[in-house]
Design goal:
seven-stranded mixed sheet; four-stranded antiparallel sheet; about 120 residues; mainly beta
């Protein structure tokens, strides 16, 4: 299984970015998938995930600004980020689960998002 993120970059506060995660060797079925991030000097944080039942869970700090979606036909997971803030600056990782449980066994290499004020 390989997950490859793209779409990161530098943007000014208030701007938008759309991250993509292309999965190979993995079937987009009813499994948990999501986006996580790690800011410099901080621990990992779950940003937004899709549960095995299709439900979504958001970190409070991104609710109303970030949206997760997927294109199962293209094996691609997306993260639309609007109204970006400097505190959103982090390495963003895509993660996927191996089983029906949300184990997040598979991780991408990350894509860097830098938001300037």
């Amino acid at each position: 299984v390989q997950l490859v993120e793209s779409g990161g970059g530098s943007v000014q506060a208030g701007g938008s970015l759309k991250l993509s995660c292309v999965a190979s060797g993995y079937t987009f079925s009813s499994r948990c998938m999501g986006w996580f991030r790690q800011a410099p000097g901080e621990g990992s944080e779950g940003v937004i995930v899709i549960g095995h039942d299709g439900s979504t869970s958001y970190a409070g700090s991104v609710k109303g600004r970030f949206t997760i979606s997927k294109d199962s036909a293209k094996n691609t997971l997306f993260l639309q980020m609007n109204s970006l803030k400097p505190e959103d600056t982090a390495m963003y990782y895509c993660a996927a689960s191996a089983s029906g449980a949300c184990d997040y066994s598979f991780w991408g290499q990350g894509t860097l998002v830098n938001v300037s004020s």
